[in-house]
């Protein structure tokens, strides 16, 4: 496959199998994410969503079989990491004793783009402010990250992913611990990024009810890919109702876990 | 050269001032990486290297060689070994450091007993002795300090991002392997350069105590670096001053001053009438 043939493909996953210590987690996964789409990735706990995302990002490399392409380039050769933004599920597993300010954390989102020698310049500081403003955390700019609430920290990590102006943004359950009003705002923000800035989005989530109102495509995963299609098709499929039930239970448990 | 024209007292003071900047600087990075304990075991490996160096110098008297260089070599190998073990046995991270530590101290005890060097020479390396800083030692300290600062200048951003969030660093295209290697070099450099000033047994204190005190007041990473260096320098200078006036071992005095500073900063919040609530 030539690079130019698939310029409108952000991700191509081909026959991917993966196991942790002999325990199969992903089997025969194949799908394509088109440029400009907003894809929701759903599935029960332990269905392999985070694993799939880590494979795509090259964070797990003991892939058993299959191929992954990013922007038409085989993952192994992919170098343009500044095109990709990532908010991990355990974003707040960082060293909370680290006395970094919100500003300093978001600045890290630019480090990959900056070469040797360079320190933050004015334009870059403005970008950081802009990203913080987008997630509504600008007033907290100078606060140490460890002194923020879980939901506030989560927003800072989203800003860190946004600041490098990625073309493709991957978010693994970014709204866990974020209150309902903010979740709605957050989805509207994602929609804006997707439609106005043409950022391709891949979002892992458990709140299916909300998600289907915003996304263009849905991937349904449980070890194998159970569904891949448009949001409308997903709504009318019986899978939707099954998952809705399943998942609301899950979200509930999640909530309990965090309080 | 400049270091030759200094008196032995001046040499000692210059050496102490340099170490007072570099050790807390690297200490701050190590703290963020949650691997301060590594420096402790590495210092023992460095001792092995120095023991080997002293022994080697005795065997081959014709080649003048500063044992510090061999100490650095051992520290680097030990540092890389710990990093390797840390990655290979992911769940036994805490085991890697003590393993190296015991091996290092055991081996240096063996080498020490073979060597015919006097007790004083060992004592200098164990607890530091700024009056015995030779021109060649000072040159070693200046070279290593320069390398540390170069690494900091060029890779500060990368080192920070890897320490803060390794996964995010990888996704940003930062080579985590390369940065972990740089960390190993930094630790080896700082330990071997501190040896003559505070000694192997006390270098861990100079790396961690000023940083621990700074954590009480720093509100950003930049502030942490600045405070660590200031407090490190205060501890070193006051330690040297008191040790000179009351003829106390300087290495020990520097560490005692660091401990006092840490205590002061721990008590600071309650002394300040709890002005800032919740920043304990
Ligand atoms: N580091 C690991 N080592 C071994 N097994 C793992 C590891 N990480 C995940 N697993 C297993 O792989 C399976 C998939 O995990 P994964 O984290 O991908 O699920 P998920 O779909 O993201 O779940 P959740 O909705 O809870 O985030 C689970 O059965 C889990 O136990
Ligand atoms: Mg997950």
UniProtKB/TrEMBL annotation, chain B:
Q: Where in the cell is it found?
A: Cell membrane; Membrane
Known Pfam families for this protein?
Answer: ABC-3
- Answer yes or no on keyword Chloroplast: no
Q: Tell me which domain of life the UniProt entry assigns to the organism this sequence originates from.
A: Bacteria
| Keywords, alphabetical | Membrane, Transmembrane, Transmembrane helix, Transport
Q: What is its main location?
A: membrane
Bilayer topology reads: Multi-pass membrane protein
**What name does this protein carry?**
Metal ABC transporter permease
Protein source organism:
Aliibacillus thermotolerans
